[in-house]
Design brief:
Length: 289
């Protein structure tokens, strides 16, 4: 039982990061009906930016994270603005455009930071916390707290602000939102910006947990994408539940099927999706009719 609980605790920490990535995917999808395939690459950019400002310029970790989020938010705005003319012409081209941006970001990452990775030390000192015989790393608690805060702030933004309400209206129906004077393009841009910021937050937080490398975003992007589908693509609570579920499943698979953990994780994921294709909370996306 103790080993099981320890495995669950370890999985929840990474699951919180997967949830942040899934939230970015879901936010763009529910607003535009678009899967942003450059999202994983933005995660990598965020991880490198946060680690660079933290290690090279000696900024405090929290400030380094904020700078990374701001820069990637601008990248999200640029991606949306370049792709916007394609939205009403050929949506498939817009989808392909996100893949193109991902390739460009990959190339820029290697040009700027090189093909080798870097280890990021934990910004939180101190021995693990002992609780009922379980060892909990302090940084794991920090990751959980920040991910929870980011999720709450996102929900409050969508439900309590005028801009968030406008994004919710756009997510329900583009035509109706336009008819009542809502600027759809602006809502789409904010969705991309916030989604990119969440990607940077995930990348920055995962740096001390994993090894920052050009392939980091690919691994996190796939897990976050799976989490979004598992919870219900476009669903905010679904992204959180899916992320935590994938994290715990990943942790159990790594403990019991070393060398085959990725295979086992996605076999279980596939089985669940075959039973419930729309995910736990059902798919949520914009009505383009």
């Amino acid at each position: 039982m103790q080993v099981t609980l320890q495995t669950i605790i370890g999985g929840i920490s990474l699951g919180a990061v997967y949830a942040l990535v899934a939230l970015g995917f879901s936010l763009v999808y529910r607003t535009m009906g678009l899967v942003n395939f450059a999202h994983g690459n933005v995660v990598t950019v965020g991880a490198y930016l946060a680690s660079t400002f933290y290690l090279s310029t000696k900024l405090p970790f929290a400030l380094a994270m904020m700078v990374a989020i701001a820069v990637t938010g601008v990248i999200g705005l640029v991606i949306e603005r370049v792709l916007r003319p394609l939205e009403n012409k050929d949506f498939d081209l817009m989808l392909i455009g996100t893949i193109g941006f991902g390739i460009v970001l990959d190339a820029l990452i290697i040009m700027i930071w090189g093909a080798t990775g870097r280890a990021v030390p934990s910004p939180v000192a101190g021995a693990p916390i002992e609780l009922f015989g379980l060892r909990i790393r302090t940084y794991d608690l920090v990751v959980l707290a920040i991910a929870a805060l980011a999720t709450v702030l996102l929900v409050l933004f969508l439900s309590r602000t005028k801009r968030g309400a406008a994004m919710q209206a756009v997510a329900m129906d583009h035509e109706a939102a336009t008819a009542v004077g809502i600027h759809v393009g602006r809502s789409n841009a904010i969705a991309f910006m916030v989604g990119a910021g969440l990607a940077a937050l995930a990348g920055g937080l995962v740096g001390p947990l994993l090894y920052v490398s050009p392939t980091l975003g690919g691994a996190l992007g796939i897990k976050g994408f799976a989490a979004a589908i598992l919870g219900g693509f476009g669903s905010i609570p679904g992204a959180v539940v899916g992320g935590l579920a994938i994290g715990v499943l990943d942790s159990f698979a790594a403990g019991h099927f070393q060398g085959y953990s990725e295979l086992v994780t996605f076999l279980v994921f596939t089985a669940i999706i075959m039973i419930r294709p729309t995910g736990v909370f059902g798919e949520r996306t914009v009505n383009r009719a």
